[in-house]
Amino acid sequence: MHIAMIAGSNRQNATSTSVLRYIETILKARNIPVSFIDLRVVQLPLYSPDSEVVPPEADLLITAVKQADGLILATPEYHGSLSGSLKNALDYLDNSHVAGKPVLPVSSAGGPLGISSLIHLQGIIRNLHGILCPEWVSIGDGQPVFDRDGVPQDMEIIQRIDQAVEQFIGLVRKLGDGSKQPVKELMES
Length: 189
Ligand SMILES: Cc1cc2nc3c(=O)[nH]c(=O)nc-3n(C[C@H](O)[C@H](O)[C@H](O)COP(=O)(O)O)c2cc1C
Fold this sequence. Notes:
about 190 residues, alpha/beta, Rossmann fold, 6-stranded parallel sheet, globular, binds flavin mononucleotide, FMN binding, FMN_Rdtase-like_dom
């Protein structure tokens, strides 16, 4: 099993990125290999369908997603939607990279919950033929989930994240290699 994680905030010390880093520790503790793409660090050029050359940063992203059995996408809630950084990254992808793979969305909002960004992400995942994890993670009110050293501050939220990750791993296992083929066959029939 291999998981690709994309952190969609262009902000230092972003809540959504810290949640992804926490999930990364859970996956690594279970010996699950992870590709972590932080879009604040891997700055992708604005996607253009006219471009004939894939930029190296985008190549890194596409390769990580192609090789993954499941994806975890994190975004801040911006104007009732996902961040431009994450949307731009997702525009580099197509169905062949994502089809049949479970996707766990994560959001962070200034308001009580970041549901709009999660719902917009859901539409994009569906268009890429990914499989939306029944659980998702939303951190609201700019809640301090971790301190600056990454130590959890709110055990209730941590428990919810743990449950969502547990369900996501279960889904990736169920759909892993053996069952990916039938999904492809179904799409071709
Ligand atoms: C351009 C912009 C638009 C925002 N729009 C919303 C919004 O529509 N709803 C909301 O609850 N918070 C909104 N916020 C607040 C962010 O969602 C909040 O600061 C969030 O914690 C940022 O996530 P991050 O720490 O992962 O970058 C906005 C912030 C910015 C900079």
